[in-house]
Design goal:
Blueprint (H helix, E strand, L loop, with lengths): L2 H26 L17 H6 L15 H11 L12 H13 L10 H14 L11
Helix pairs in contact: 1-5
Length: about 140
């Protein structure tokens, strides 16, 4: 992978995930507008309807799941130590983290994401003796 692509992955994937999480949170905790099609669906905040469907005249179709079975499957399915969760090789990730800290660790937003993308490129190009990173996992 190229240097620029690795920086993109390291910076943009977590930021986009944060934006998607905020959107989902907003949608699930905000009442919907009046439905023009007059469907017979419960009206209210989706998150509240999910936690107490009887209060909104809806039926509870949640499937019950034994906690022990869930926890055992979660262990096998969500191993965060799996290499797929490394967005970039660890040594390169360390370099990017150093750059990010040297920029005072600003929060990433749509207003500064491209500036934060370009700063590590500039830092690497301005190094007296550029480090060589293994760009493959």
């Amino acid at each position: 992978m190229t240097f620029t692509r690795l920086i993109f992955l390291w910076l943009f994937i977590p930021w986009l995930q944060q934006e998607l999480d905020a959107y989902v949170d907003h949608v699930n905790h905000t009442a919907k507008c009046c439905d023009q099609n007059k469907k017979s669906l419960p009206h209210g905040v989706p998150g509240l309807i999910h936690t107490s469907p009887a209060d909104y005249g809806a039926l509870d179709f949640n499937a019950s799941l034994q906690i022990r079975a869930y926890e055992s499957q979660q262990f096998f399915l969500l191993q965060t130590s799996h290499p797929i969760f490394n967005l970039v090789p660890p040594t390169f990730g360390g370099f990017l983290q150093e750059c990010y800290v040297s920029f005072q660790s600003p929060s990433v937003s749509c207003h500064n994401v491209w500036v934060l993308y370009l700063k590590p490129l500039t830092s690497y190009n301005n190094m007296q003796k550029p480090r060589h990173y293994c760009l493959h996992s």
